[in-house]
Write a structure and sequence with these properties.
single chain; mainly beta; seven-stranded antiparallel β-sheet; four-stranded antiparallel β-sheet; 36% strand; globular
């Protein structure tokens, strides 16, 4: 098992706490399947899903020190490749991409084998398939379609303002710009923001497929303190919106922008509380557009109700409607299970867990390897709890029924797939991966921006 059983490392955040001694058992309404990794535990690195061999089923791609592994949904290793992996300095980023990078109709997996080198593997076999030299050291990369030829381009991020694009097959420089405005702890993200069939780069400024800045609006220096962002169709139809979380104390806003305008800048409703981590979904189907969940910083502002546990890092989330009005706010500690950490939730993203009209949240315990949960965003109610010692949590539709499964990576190196076993109430509808911005973000994510 490539030395996996000799690893005693445990991945935890810098604020790690011991896990609670007792957790609730898994609900009877949840199916669970699990499998061990055949590679070291990803104390650096992460995972994403991609159809590696064209059989219509999503496979797992997992990166960890010195290894990249591919697994089918049953856990059978398709291949495990040994090689140096250059990791993004912040938590949980996969640091790899997958797609048809050379236009031959077959899939490839690529990863940073150094700050100036992209190694390419055959996605079906894991065999080496070439490499591309980069013009200068980078921090992160992302797959893109910039020329209308498919996923045959690679975006490169040097820092928060400086990015470039190359051809994936030859490494030829397509363009370079210093007009990008990025997120403090998250790599850039790309998607077809304007519906023209080509990718643009999202952030606190937007870069078009040709490398030129798209937006006339300017958020000023606020980008230096952005802590999280997500691409979503907040106002239905193109252009897509980018939701950004400022981390500036009492002056912290949630910013929603698109290529044409600043849709809104909503000041935090607690007088002094950063939105910190954000996600967007259809949390209230009776309202137009999408709602934005703001997790809150949990301890950095004035919302916590005390200086001792469980209040010292207490989270006080709020939800905004599509116009930026606050429609809900509450304390996670008022709704969590008794044994759940008082520090709240992390790794928060939107999920369609039950198939009804309203989206939910999926998250794990904050500041420790712990349980995961489905949470109702408007009330904070814990709908479902997944016991364990999860390092990472990830939502994706593996079964193809439009509902999404909850995938956790346990600190012992086990992947667990939690599925909703109850009847699915909605009629068949397109797989969420039919949305291009969904696919892009499920591949290029990290702890700060799941």
């Amino acid at each position: 098992m490539l030395g996996r059983w000799l690893l005693l490392c445990v991945f935890e955040s810098a604020f790690a706490l011991p896990i609670a001694p007792a957790q609730e058992p898994l609900s009877e309404g949840v199916d669970l399947r699990e499998f061990p990794l055949a590679q070291p535990i990803p104390e650096k690195g992460g995972l994403f899903v991609h159809d590696l061999d064209g059989d219509g089923q999503l496979d797992f791609v997992v990166t960890s020190p010195g290894h990249i592994g591919a697994y089918d949904q049953s856990g059978t290793p398709k291949w495990v490749y040994r090689g140096e992996v250059f990791f993004w300095p912040f938590s949980a980023h996969p640091c790899a991409i997958a797609g048809d990078l050379d236009g031959d109709g077959e899939q490839e997996v690529a990863y940073l084998s150094g700050p100036q080198r992209v190694a390419i593997l055959d996605a079906e076999t894991g065999e080496g398939d070439g490499e591309v030299q980069l013009p200068k050291p980078i921090q992160a990369m992302a797959i893109a379609d910039l020329r209308g030829l498919g996923d045959r381009d690679i975006l490169l991020q040097y820092d928060q303002t400086h990015i470039a694009a190359i051809r994936a097959d030859t490494g030829e420089l397509l363009w370079e710009t210093d007009e990008y405005r990025g997120i403090e702890h998250s790599p850039f993200r790309a998607a077809d923001l304007d519906g023209d069939g080509r990718d643009e780069v999202a952030g606190a400024s937007l870069i078009d497929d040709d490398g030129h800045r798209m937006n006339a609006w300017d958020l000023g220096g606020a980008y230096l303190n952005m802590d999280s962002f997500v691409i979503a169709d907040v106002i239905p139809g193109y252009p897509l919106e980018i939701v950004l979380a400022e981390q500036r104390g009492a002056n912290s806003h949630t910013d929603v922008v698109n290529a044409n305008e600043i849709v809104y800048r909503s000041l935090n409703p607690w007088n002094w509380e950063d939105p910190d981590k954000v996600t967007a979904g259809d949390f209230d189907p009776d309202r137009p557009g999408l709602e934005v969940f703001n997790r809150s910083s949990g301890g950095d502002g004035t919302a916590p109700r005390g200086d001792e546990e469980p209040f010292v890092n207490e989270e006080a989330p709020w939800v905004l409607d599509a116009s930026g009005e606050t429609i809900a706010k509450y304390y996670i500690n008022d709704h969590k299970p008794e044994w759940w950490t008082g520090h709240g939730i992390e790794g928060v993203s939107r999920i369609d867990w039950d198939g009804d009209a309203a989206d939910e949240l999926v998250a794990k315990e904050r500041h420790r390897n712990g349980a995961g949960a489905i949470v109702a965003p408007l009330t904070g109610r814990f709908v479902e709890v997944f016991p364990g010692k999860a390092m990472l949590i990830y939502a994706v539709d593996l079964a193809g029924d439009s509902r999404e499964e909850v995938v956790t990576l346990d600190e012992g190196g086990t992947i667990r797939i939690h599925s909703n076993a109850r009847p699915n109430p909605h009629p068949e509808r397109p797989h969420p991966r039919s949305q291009q911005h969904y696919r892009r973000q499920k591949q290029n994510w990290n702890y700060y921006s799941p």
